[in-house]
Specification:
Elements (H helix, E strand, L loop, with lengths): L4 H21 L2 H9 L2 H14 L5 H24 L4 H5 L3 H29 L3 H13 L2 H11 L3 H25 L3 H8 L4 H16 L6 H28 L5 H17 L9 H17 L10 H26 L3 H12 L5 H8 L4 H27 L3
Amino acid sequence: MITNGFTYVAVLLFMAAVLVTLEKKTTGVVQKFFKFVPAVVLCYLVAMILCTFKVWDMESTKPAYTALKNSLTYAMVFTMLLRCDIRKIIKLGPKMLIGFFSASLTIIIGFIVAFAIMKGAIGSNSWMGLGALCGSWLGGSGNMVAVQAALGISEADMGYALVIDSIDYSLWVMFLLWFIQLAPRFNKWTKANTKTLDEVSNRLADDAKANTTPLTFQSLILLIGVALLVSAVGGNVGTALNSAMPFLDKATWTILFITVLGLVGAVSPLGKVAGSSEVSNLLLYSVIVLLASRASLLELADAPMWILTGFLILAIHAVLMVLLCKLLKLDLFTGAVASLANIGGTASAPVLAGSYSGSLVPVGILMALMGYVIGTPLGILTARIMSMLV
């Protein structure tokens, strides 16, 4: 049994490194397996299995966990947002922005309604785990752990959220990839015009080609140094803001403060430094394995009801989204990619966009990046609304 905090962290990061390497380097059957179960999900699952079998002592390793979890989460949120240049997002145009926020709104409604229906089966305190999942389905895994940090959600509830995020999300991606073939008929039904979509895609593709900044040691150490400093300063600012305005707790103030700094940084020269994606992913995997290391599989007995809740959320979102597409005359690409940009993030939205047209991949990427901006604050807000229904 591991009792040393450093060894505990080293084992977790090595495990994550092995899984990511297998995902990137393997071929054949193993590669196909990782397409259905990505490394980030396996990291959580393997860490939970190790916790279940008591590979480390929970009390002895708790100081290391406590010292790192929130600090790395804040650093991750900052570097994640450095990719979200508001000026480029505006280029998406009003119709696609309307589509994106329509998807966000219907997802939020889905969470609130599903919780009201299912709270008797999954527990009245499940609003916290669903709040974390909402952060993920509005933005990405980074937003999930940011909401977890802000609301102090238990590792067990995070485990439920990740189960839904893996199973329900995977089936939703497959459904949308199938549904995209019906685009001509859907667009005719909604009376959508796709001319603006093609123009926006061409502009974004030109911008992407012009950005050739290389990834260097200097850029990586700069981003890591700034992110860790922002995390340290953000914690102190969060404490000060909580003392002055106690209607929000310290963690929530810290996350909101760092979100603002990240958005400002994105439009500054720092936003052009190569490596923000790599650094934010490194921090994300570190936080994921730390969170999972405190959750035992024995705590997931109610997982089937949570999975059902996830499908109910998606069903409500789908019905409302189709109605809005008809009302607003949105094309299937805008509606489907907006949905997956929220629920799947940068990992899957570009794939769906590319399956529609290769020139539209930049649109999928920018929509997904926009989710990083709204995921955390709206995830927290949705959780608070659900808590009022208890």
